[in-house]
Amino acid sequence: MYVGVSQRLCQIQRQLQLHTMLSHEGPSETLKRKIAELQKMRKSKKNLKIKKDQFIVEVPKSKSYLDTASLPRILTVVGVGHFTKLLMMHDDSRSQELIERKIKNAPAGQGTVRMLSHEEWEEIREVRPRTPFESKLARPNARIRTGEQLRK
């Protein structure tokens, strides 16, 4: 945009020179006004460019007010603490109720622990493995699902 104004100013100055060469009189008033307007525009655009190059640095506000504990802040912290404590207490009581309800509604014999006899343990070890690569140490007679024996 600045180039366009400069080019236009140069054209008018050339016209002015041609005009003064052809007629030995001075330039016309309209031509002088046009030149004056273009020069004003040129100067104002230069001033705008200078203003654009300058920048303003915002200085951050002091945060010293955060160091001071005020009553609303203290009350907020205490309120949030009490609210979380109430939520935790409610959750604990609810989880205990759920566990008791599950135990109450469970079928008979479920959840009881007892020792296996030696025969029961051997019986479990004889069962074919559920996965083809189960450890032979856990079940010595383990076979791959295809029926072939594991390598010895």
From TrEMBL:
Residues 130-152 are annotated as: Disordered. This is Uncharacterized protein.
